[in-house]
Please model this.
Amino acid sequence: MNQSKRYLDIVRDIRDMIRQEKIKPGDRIPSERELAETMQVGRSTLREALRSLELLGLIETRRGEGTFLSDHRNQKLVEVLSTFVLQDNQSHEDVWETRLLHEVAAIQAICRNEAASQMKVWESLRLRLEDESFLREDFVRELMVLSGNRLSLKIWFLLKQYSGNPYDGTVSSEEIGSMNDILAAIERQDADTAIHGFKAWSEWLQKERIRNGNDS
Amino acid sequence: MNQSKRYLDIVRDIRDMIRQEKIKPGDRIPSERELAETMQVGRSTLREALRSLELLGLIETRRGEGTFLSDHRNQKLVEVLSTFVLQDNQSHEDVWETRLLHEVAAIQAICRNEAASQMKVWESLRLRLEDESFLREDFVRELMVLSGNRLSLKIWFLLKQYSGNPYDGTVSSEEIGSMNDILAAIERQDADTAIHGFKAWSEWLQKERIRNGNDS
DNA sequence: AGGATATGAGTGGCCAGACCACTTTCAAAA
DNA sequence: TTTTGAAAGTGGTCTGGCCACTCATATCCT
Model:
């Protein structure tokens, strides 16, 4: 029968409880002693289940206060994924390529979405470009956010770190031109041109990094 | 200093131990009592760490035998996370979209690579299509593998599970036509047509699943 | 001698009870 | 009214114990 692995049952029970009691992210769930009592299990067994859920980022515990439903949803999800995915043999090239893949897809998604293409964001972005302290990363992150795919954003964020923060530094005067071109293309929903420009910028950046001897 | 969260240290220590001792998947790791002794922690605390690792699919425990390094990761991980994390529709949509994103990119990469487009794989794939027991998933996985990006492959594999194994089942006679079209387009390196066909197939599949009432 | 059986050591699964460290609360003291 | 401090509640950890299971070994019966 369903022998052994009681802590897995507890994981399921906790999930059901959260559903039924309509506990929202950020809410506090009953204390360990209380849960152990109602579920008729020892506290240490219950803790095994809670610790598992915590490592997954599903709950959050604060000593002296209690246990709370985590509100970061797929925040930790991606972190967990990264420990699986990026633990070995990831050639730098794969990381680079995959990151670019997400960026291109983001631009494509923005261009497809009429509303996104015509937002005021672009104006303000263009203005901020003139600022000497405008970070390259801010530019790309803005694109990722505006794509609307939060999961892709999280994955991108991780990949960016694994590829040694390729967008480190501020936008130089040489780059402003091509970045303006990219923005213009997006505004008129010309995905091909925008992507082409972006890829060109990305490659230029990569060579620049190599020339300056930046490493991962 | 490093207060609280001792079990996290243990997780790290165990991982390091596995690395140093060169323990391979399937190998047995020391017993709980032994580990607790050498790490100078209580057995229950150690167990919290082990249970966490087990839920992640990194280890496997068999009562009466011992604890072993798991070779097939993410098993319960996906199960648990998909029920906890992916509650809202936005997340489901994001997962679906991101998976498709990787698939499309794979096709594009294959088409760009002249050598890959002209491999014999396509012939054998076309033959296997005729087989009644040919799994949809095999088809897509083949594409992902041939793209050459192993990182993307891994991410895809996880996302596939999170979106409820969208390619479950065998290829039906209705689908063979469009799949052959996709293969043909790839062979002549016509990325646009291949992708267009693939997306159409993917959407058709999604509707089919909804009609049959498949869930998570 | 050979096969079936009992035994004991080792292992994970689970529990009860005990401290400790920390946070919050609220009543008593200033 | 403000400050203080004691108590209650919570997670963090350890100890020691018992149970259920596996496996290798020794033992017994044929």
